[in-house]
Amino acid sequence: MISSNEYGSHSWELLVTVDHQKEEVQKEFLLQVTGDLHVGGVMLKLVEQIKIQQDWSDYALWWQQKKCWLLKTHWTLDKCGVQADAKLFFTTQHKMLQLRLPNMKTVRLKVSFSSVVFKAVSDICKVLNIRRSEELSLLKQPEHAVKKKKKKDKNSKEPVTEDILNLCDSPVSSGFSGSPGLYSKTMTPTYDPFSGTPASSTITWFGDSPLTEQNCGTLALSHSSCSPEILAEMYQPRTLADKAKLNAGWLDSSRSLMEQGILEDDQLLLRFKYYTFFDLNPKYDAVRINQIYEQARWAILLEEIDCTEEEMLIFAALQAQYHISKLSLSSEAQDFTCESEVDEVEAALSNLEVTLEGGNRNNTLEDITDIPKLADNLRLVRPKKLSIKAIKPYWFVFTDTSVSYFKNKDSAQGEPIEKLNLKGCEVVPDVNVATKKFGIKLLIPVADGMNEVSLRCENENQYAQWMAACTLASKGKTMADSSYHPEVHKILSFLKMKNWTMSPQAVSDPESIDMKPECFVSLRYTKRYRPKQLAARILEAHQNVSAMTLVEAKLRFIQAWQSLPEFGLSYYIVRFKGSKKDDVLGVSYNRLIRIDLATGDPITTWRFSNMKQWNVNWEIRQVAIEFDQNVSIAFTSLSADCKIIHEYIGGYIFLSTRSKGQNETLDEDLFHKLTGGQE
């Protein structure tokens, strides 16, 4: 047996502070421990000394100096590295957190501060009834936006926190996941697809969830418009450098909130981080669709993404249609419990599933037959320095992923004047429906940068076919791919929305409709037009969308947002290895783009499909990527931690492995393997 003196020589005192609310009970305890005592034993000793009768199951030890949780209760103090100078806190793992959603509403709920952010976001989304939580993450509010708020007048309106939706009784607060009923693929629709509110026949699916019918309406419906005064108070990026600041605050998905300095009742932004909206379904995704719509709407209003005046009016018209439809719905008492009505809605919305390339497609037989080709007369536009653009007609032939052009149709059997390989190129629409301009700008990668070529089409149909072919070719796909015809249809529907002069209907009197036109466009256009002029222009554009339902208007808005050239690009200021100046790196769902910081022009594009491997040198914080054909790049990030860019790349590759055939259980280990890095 060991004597008490001998035992004392191996033991030492460990100071632990207990986080509890009872002021009359001491909070600091000195425990006599040894290095071979496991963490669970320390917690047991501590609880015995506290002498407070309560449930301690949610408590764990937090090591303040090392900023880490001691969650492996079977590890000894020696294995954890805990010594006498360690300051440990015995605190709850689940704490209150304020989350500002994309619709600018703030919810307050309990979140796990000890789970990695990827898992915490998954639990949050289950409470909010948002499927595909892997597309979202948590973002720290940009510092420049916080500073601007501090300068505001105290009496000025606060656009985002007029009231806080308190979900403190959520399942997450007890450490449990959300109701599995919300995720059943065989269930009847959780929401009415017309208005987005819970269908009365399925309201019981919420069970113990804090999402009451009223709360569902808050999350699934767009409620308030934004006045120009409120818009003026909000941060609006003016340059690429400003846009890069917006993406600097993403939290590390592989670490917990507490490890990243987040405190109880702090406010974070819940946002869609990855722009691959997989398997959108109006039956189950009312909250998700509305939050995507709201994120898109605010991106347009705050000019975080550029669009033309014609496109801005389309976005305004779709918002106006949503506003008008909601007013008409609210004036009528409607009951959607009838199954036949739901079935009709399913049929009407069956073609509205908005998806990007989120996973592998099941190729149909047409994908392995002869690859179709396009052949037609187009005009070629080549920009020339210090002179007018050269525009000449040629006979163009599109096969596989290449486009060739000849002097005329008769010479098409011989050698082409030039053959352009479009794989990996940037395809930018250059369209103005009012002036009948249907252009396709191609930025084709060459050894010293990008070669710019533009094609001019004669009409909408020709443009839609060639634009769809170019878009697929840039991704390495041919017109035999099953996504070609849907892409053509999507382009045509977007052009039809733009062509509001084709409708013979008379424009409604702007004053007869209860709407504020300045709430639907960015500040640039409210300064350019008077309210009556703006209302008339919006109502002209509104003619082509006036028959849409609430959900259809939102889905069309999302679809139009996806059609913008800058859609899905997240910007970072970087310094490429060997370069003497800073550049901008654009990260998208399928490619990286090097952009000139001064001019905004793309310099080079690299596709994820050509990527062989990527890694990070954590000592010098440098990201290195290898592509096919012995192409290698390396850069250091100046506007954000390099871990954020590394996680973006790995996250998009992880999301590309999703398919509709698999269940919705994610391979979390694979996500962390692709995004975590080896720090």
TrEMBL record:
Coiled coil: none annotated. InterPro entries: Band_41_domain, FERM/acyl-CoA-bd_prot_sf, FERM_2, FERM_central, FERM_CS, Kindlin/fermitin, Kindlin_2_N, PH-like_dom_sf. GO terms for biological process: cell-matrix adhesion; integrin-mediated signaling pathway. Keywords: Cell adhesion. GO terms for molecular function: integrin binding. The keyword Iron does not apply. The keyword Chaperone does not apply. One of its GO terms (cellular component) is focal adhesion. Residues 379-475 form the PH domain. Gene3D superfamilies: 1.20.80.10, Phosphatidylinositol 3-kinase Catalytic Subunit, Chain A, domain 1, Pleckstrin-homology domain (PH domain)/Phosphotyrosine-binding domain (PTB). CDD domains: FERM_B-lobe (cd14473), FERM_C_fermitin (cd13205), FERM_F0_KIND1 (cd17180), PH_fermitin (cd01237). PANTHER family: FERMITIN 2-RELATED, FERMITIN FAMILY HOMOLOG 1. Belongs to the kindlin family. This is FERM1 protein. It comes from Jacana jacana (Wattled jacana). The gene is Fermt1.
